[in-house]
Write a structure and sequence with these properties.
Helix content is 35%, strand content 16%. By secondary structure, it is an alpha/beta fold. Strands 3-2-4-1-5-6 form a six-stranded mixed beta sheet. Strand 5 and strand 6 form a beta hairpin. The longest helix has 18 residues. It starts with 7 loop residues before the first strand and ends with a strand.
Length: 193
């Protein structure tokens, strides 16, 4: 179902060793696995026929390489605000390991010591949304799970912590858009594999 209004396609990067093992991967620049590269190549067919005015990518190599392998790197603009959550002291650690030392911890509520709070990530998402609304055009974005989840929540006008309610698989495609007019932001599709 197409829309008369601009659609924003979100692509989560392909699999990495850390995404596979559940390790928090914020600012560490972890490459795609062979499976991640293959899934990224298959995005080309899944996105075939998509017409966009711009392609934006997180600065991480996992996002940039997913973009490249999907065939969209020629004119991709690197946007630092699309970077994944800065996990600070929790970088490279699994949720299970964090909970062993900090029972009850929740990323979307508590943030990370020496890293970003949910408000910090929400502020970055708000900047991206302001740019998207100003562009008023179809745009393709390559980024990471937790950031894109916050972006979706803020797109809908929800608190940034409500990003916890959305799940994204690697190389999934989601679409943000509008319903009746530009004052009614919606999620048109989510976590398409």
């Amino acid at each position: 179902m197409s829309s008369a209004f601009p659609e924003i396609h979100l692509v989560r990067h392909g699999e990495t060793e850390w995404s596979l093992s559940g390790r928090h991967t914020g600012r560490s620049d972890i490459p795609l696995t062979a499976n991640g590269e293959e899934a990224a190549r298959k995005l080309a067919a899944r996105l075939e026929g998509l017409s966009v005015s711009a392609v934006w990518s997180s600065p991480s190599q996992r996002a940039r390489n997913t973009c490249r392998l999907a065939g969209y790197d020629t004119d991709a603009v690197i946007k630092p605000d699309l970077a994944e959550w800065d996990y600070g002291a929790y970088e490279g650690i699994t949720t299970k390991e964090i909970l062993a030392g900090r029972p009850g911890w929740q990323l979307f509520r508590d943030g990370c010591p020496n890293g970003e709070t949910v408000a910090d990530v929400g502020a970055r998402a708000d900047k991206i949304i302001a740019e998207l609304r100003q562009a008023n055009a179809p745009i393709l974005i390559f980024s990471s799970s937790h950031f894109l989840r916050v972006l979706a929540a803020r797109w809908l006008g929800l608190p940034a912590q409500d990003g916890s309610r959305f799940i994204l698989d690697t190389t999934s495609i989601s679409i943000l858009g509008y319903e009746h007019d530009l004052t009614e932001p919606v999620i048109r599709r989510w976590n398409q594999r």
